Amino acid sequence: GPGWPGVVEAYRDRVAVPDGAEVVSLREGNTPLVFAPHLSELTGCRVHVKVEGANPTGSFKDRGMTVAMTHAKAAGMQAVICASTGNTSASAAAYAARAGMGSAVLVPQGKIAMGKLAQAVVHGARILQVRGSFDDCLELARKTAANYPVTLVNSVNPARLAGQKTAAFEICDTLGSAPDVHCLPVGNAGNITAYWTGYSEYLADGRTDRAPAMFGFQAAGAAPLVSGEPVSEPETVATAIRVGSPASWDGAVAARTNSGGLFSAVTDERILEAYRLLASREGIFVEPASAASIAGLLATSAEGRLPVGSDVVCTVTGHGLKDPDTALADMVEVQPLPVDPEAVATALELT
Ligand code: F0G
């Protein structure tokens, strides 16, 4: 069909799927890379934002889910399972529906944003709320997939990372080369691992003349990669990255070390400031976890750890509409107006 074909078709030579497999796709990828003038001014860098909330289910997870679901369907599986802080479950539910398969999602009770839960509900997932953390949910999902005929579609499934690396390809294809620095939020650490794989492949094949330093940012209350120790009770407003024991720990450390990058922690307060700044100054509405990359950008710039003049890309991983409760938390009640133009003018202080 016409238009962008989705990441598997667009990068067929780089994303392996079984021969003759029917590709399960919602035409994910090809997301906007938006120049950010205000962030550029604040940091003295050239900053672009990779807006992954523009994917079909509103997060970067779709890039990996198309690949994982294509493999599962080709293998004749009837159902998939995942643990999730919300976005993976939304994506798995949508792509399973598309594939005519079932999905089961394990989520930490009371700790996933409203929009994400709504997606899992409407796409028909079997939703199991667990009295435990994301890390507990992942262990349960792994054990279930090991013992029953369901495919695990968390990022421990290598097909997921093979799809997610395509974001790095798109950035290089759009900018003409990789940036100097790439900032992103880190939870279970699959995405930073996938980006580094993507940049490394392009560098090896001469499709870019450099690879970026990978800057991975975690929420201060859930920052195992920063402290070097798993966190037993992770807590943060950025529920998407509320992960205490990242599955791709080694991949993230390799990305950081081999790229000459860094891990750093950002407080919830800074995350929410960056969240509001991005929305109010750049016109880009993201979920709190995504704003960790922006909070980290500003912090490392202020600390002198971001060389002035750098080309920087920040991935913002999920759409702001995923989490309306956070957006509306500080809203003040106002009296409704009568149907009267003068009342409108007065309310807007135009008179
Ligand atoms: N940003 C968002 C919006 C996410 O949903 C996630 C992960 C991340 C960043 C971190 O990516 O785990 O690859 O380091 N969400 C997972 C989920 C855990 O279940 O949806 P990561």
From TrEMBL:
The keyword Acetylation does not apply. Keywords: Amino-acid biosynthesis, Lyase, Pyridoxal phosphate, Threonine biosynthesis. Its cofactor is pyridoxal 5'-phosphate. There is a cross-link at residue 143 (Isoglutamyl lysine isopeptide (Lys-Gln) (interchain with Q-Cter in protein Pup)). Its EC number is 4.2.3.1. Pfam families: PALP. Pathway: Amino-acid biosynthesis; L-threonine biosynthesis; L-threonine from L-aspartate: step 5/5. It catalyses: O-phospho-L-homoserine + H2O = L-threonine + phosphate. InterPro entries: Ser/Thr_Dehydratase (IPR050147), Ser/Thr_deHydtase_PyrdxlP-BS (IPR000634), Thr_synthase-like (IPR004450), Thr_Synthase_bac/arc (IPR026260), TrpB-like_PALP (IPR001926), TrpB-like_PALP_sf (IPR036052). PANTHER family: L-THREONINE DEHYDRATASE CATABOLIC TDCB, THREONINE DEHYDRATASE, MITOCHONDRIAL-RELATED. This is Threonine synthase. It comes from Actinopolyspora saharensis.
